[in-house]
Amino acid sequence: MKALALFSGGLDSSLAIKVVKDLGIEVIALNFVSHFFGGRNEKAENMAKQLGVQLEYVDFSSSHTEILKNPKYGRGKHMNPCIDCHSLMFKKAGELLDKYGASFIISGEVLGQRPMSQNYKALEKVRMVSLKLEDIILRPLSAKLLPESLPERMGWIDREKLLSFQGRSRKPQMELANYYNLIDYPTPGGGCLLTDPGYSRRLKIIEDDGYLEDKNSHLFHLLKIGRFFRFDKGRYLIVGREREDNLKINEYKDYATLFIRGKEVPGPHIIGIGELRAEEIEFALTLFSRYSKVKGEKEVTLLINGEDITIQRVDMESLNSKIKRYQII
């Protein structure tokens, strides 16, 4: 008997796997990858090793972008379409049952842990929308508080050995983790960028400008880093704050109409998106000077689309006024 698990690498999904695995079920962990969460990472892989389970990455980025655009059950406080997102994960997992020879699906959801997306009605919506099949979703951590699932009714799983976790407290999960000797698990929260207010504000601007499409996914990733400036619809700057930002900006420079980096003086890498006007390019050049080691106080030579250009000392009062006008904080 096999089960597929929705696996983020976090504590709840890890405990759900451990509970079911200890009941004699082979579990395959599915880590769903979108533009906003998931993907290969050391912590998830280390946890999978601790649990002794096979880890598979499932890229559903394109499908996830589509439900993000028009979620049936709406969004949470920010850009997060949690109910529709969870439903899509379960649906994709259901499509993989035959591939892995599995009979049911498990997740680490806890009743009441998230008031909007993990209340009783929301969990039932997810179950009904995602599969429209027999109820093969098992939530081991709260199973005793929920209707019997097919695995329980069929005797594949002993309901009495499942749990009744409820509410927002993490204490029961941490105690169970200690019991199972699970170590180095990630702290709760922070897994999905769509719940982050700063990132959501940036992404909402992209949506309002008409660019919330999978073909523009490079924008979704660029919005994760550095400083973001918007001049008008489709005309943006991304300015690196640190070395890691610069490296990420380099990965997406082929999507840019403008690419700025230092020649001799270290400074931010800058990407311009869209057909920038002359004054907007000039603004980008002064931003380089401002955030470089010269701090805008002396002339500096940089590379713009691979060509040398030298700019003079920056008028900081004028520049700060433009920063306030264009930067999305």
Helices and strands, with pairings:
Layout: E1 2-6, H1 11-21, E2 26-33, H2 42-51, E3 54-59, H3 61-69, H4 82-95, H5 97-100, E4 104-106, H6 120-130, E5 137-138, H7 150-153, H8 171-180, H9 197-208, H10 217-222, E6 227-232, E7 235-239, H11 243-251, E8 258-262, E9 270-273, H12 278-291, E10 300-304, E11 307-311, H13 316-326, E12 327-328
Parallel strand pairs: 1-2, 1-4, 2-3, 4-5
Antiparallel strand pairs: 6-7, 6-12, 7-9, 8-9, 8-10, 10-11
Helix pairs in contact: 1-8, 4-6
What is shown here, in short?
The chain is of the alpha/beta class and 329 residues long. It has helices spanning 11-21, 42-51, 61-69, 82-95, 97-100, 120-130, 150-153, 171-180, 197-208, 217-222, 243-251, 278-291, 316-326; strands spanning 2-6, 26-33, 54-59, 104-106, 137-138, 227-232, 235-239, 258-262, 270-273, 300-304, 307-311, 327-328. The longest helix is centred in the N-terminal third of the chain and has 14 residues, at 82-95.
